[in-house]
Amino acid sequence: MNPRPDPNELTAPDDGIARGGVLLDVKNVSLSFGGVKAITDISLNVLKGEIRAIIGPNGAGKTSMLNVINGFYTPQEGTIIFRGKERRSMKPHQAVGQGIARTFQNVALFKGMSTLDNIMAGRSVRMKRNIGWQMLWHGPALREEIEHREKVEEIIDFLEIQHIRRTPVGKLPYGLQKRVELGRALAMEPTLLLLDEPMAGMNLEEKEDMSRFIIDVNQQRGTTIALIEHDMGVVMDLSDRVVVLDYGKKIADGPPDEVKNNQNVIDAYLGVPH
Amino acid sequence: MFYRTAGQFKTSYEADHALFPVRQDAILLGVILIFAFVIFPFTASEFAFRALLIPVLIYSLAALGLNILTGYAGQLSLGTGAFMGVGAYACYKLVSIFPEMNIVVAIALSGFFSAAIGVLFGLPSLRIKGFYLAIATLAAQFFLVWLFQKWAWLYNYNASGAIQVPNIDLFGITVAGPRATAMAQYYFVLCVVCAITFFAINITRGRIGRMWKAVRDMDIAAELVGINLMRTKLMAFFVSSYVVGIAGALFVFLWRGAAEANLFDIPLSFRVLFIAIIGGLGSILGNFLGAILIVALPVIISSVPGAFGIPVDSAMVEHLNIMIIGALIIAFLIIEPHGLARFWAMIREKFILWPFPH
Ligand SMILES: Nc1ncnc2c1ncn2[C@@H]1O[C@H](COP(=O)(O)OP(=O)(O)O)[C@@H](O)[C@H]1O
Ligand SMILES: [Mg+2]
């Protein structure tokens, strides 16, 4: 229905931060739930244009970190500076307004809606026509709908999910659901894309596809990506820099090769008691 | 054969966004509209108008209003009857205070009263969900009906405590009150229902409909794609209660002719909820299918056995009706939560594939 989009048209809008500049700076953040310390005094940054991996054993606090970044949790201590603006707390929909989109560890799609509608929902905040125009449908509301539909179809082509456009996502296999969820996040045209275990539960072929999509999003659209992943091979291939968490603390941070050979990391993954 | 989609390729997104991407759907709707606007009015008896056609339309509209809230936005309400009452009393006060006001304007305005009350009672939805929200709407139901009884100003201090619809003309034709003909009332209701259905279809298939469904399916994810939960939920309460209020005004002004407070009590709320469930939550068409079934059922029960010489008294009709509806509700909740609308979708699918299944 649509020719393959020209990648040059898909680059994220310029926000004044040069490639390689600090896009997100998390400083001394601590988060606890009652007595449980999920994150203890962690600082990390994400540079514009990079793929940043967050790894660590189960329960290390990785998901909590993403939740802090996109405003879902408010940390008890620390600050977050995104695109040069500092904040302690904000609502998730405000994070969206600032250009943060994410996917979830357990797919969080709108199950009763089609693939197309799920991805279109990702553009809700960009659509402005009010209920009066929506009631009439023809005219401005339809023009807006078509304009956004074209963007969404570019994403559908990019992710190669044309065949499931009309399928209710609840009926899709898990691997495809993960892909649709990525599509919904892309529809938001984020500056920073947070992916929580995008390849969990996938077979090798699906993982390869997903890796390719992540790299393409990063390179063609210039989207900065922070991802959580368990598959070390995938992490080492994809990411520019890796931060390692264990029991809510940062134990290593640096390029993949360096992190791979770090003794603390090896111990954490081998389960050496500490 | 009937539903052949082959050869109907979409060449633009505009065509894909048409109301009826499949031409046969448009033809079918055209046929239904011809029946509704031409054939029924010229063949229906007074009884058919009053016992079938008009109530089917009004109940469809009420269920449509509820379906916007419950089926699309996922917020359960047990107070539909009371919100219909708000629309009816608002309309009654408007025509009492401004007798010169055009009845269409009065009905359109009365919807805003029920919408405002709906938003007010929708506020708890920002904090509570599901069962607890249902209980909160039930509280609204009790409170409002109590208010309809106690606040004598609402019924103009009539000794009977009831509201009585006066004769009201529109373009020289009496459409409400004792002098109105069934046919005039039918056409009036039909036009209102068609217009609101058209608007509802458009709202539910566009941005706002997607936001409602997103909140229904997973509110946390909806928030994380930037949907403002508070505004989206309250908008659903507003639009839903507006439509329900209009249905309530029609219910009294264009059908019953008079009403007491207890007309809007829980049985009415449940009847509308049953129509929405049997018809299919999250469907526009379903409201009409559900209303046809619920309105026609007692008529069928009382007339069909009679035609075979089996006498059924009215108490028996009542009992059978309740038993059948109860069984249907349970059956639909278990077997097909998407109701009659899903059955139609399946039949339609068969026609599209026919005669080559797969
Ligand atoms: N909403 C919550 N309430 C209570 N404890 C939580 C909550 N979210 C996370 N935790 C706790 O915080 C710790 C880190 O969890 P999480 O961030 O999900 O780890 P990871 O994603 O690295 O596996 C765990 O001990 C977990 O039980
Ligand atoms: Mg996790």
TrEMBL record, chain B:
Major subcellular location class: membrane
TM region(s), chain numbering: 26-43, 49-69, 76-95, 101-123, 130-148, 184-203, 234-255, 261-281, 288-308, 320-341
InterPro entries (UniProt xref): ABC_transp_permease, LivM-like
Keyword Membrane attributed: yes
Record's subcellular location: Cell membrane
Keywords: Cell membrane, Membrane, Transmembrane, Transmembrane helix
Pfam families per the UniProt record, alphabetical: BPD_transp_2
Keyword Cell membrane: yes
Topology class, membrane: Multi-pass membrane protein
Domain of life of the source: Bacteria
Stretches assigned to coiled coil: none
Protein name: Branched-chain amino acid ABC transporter permease
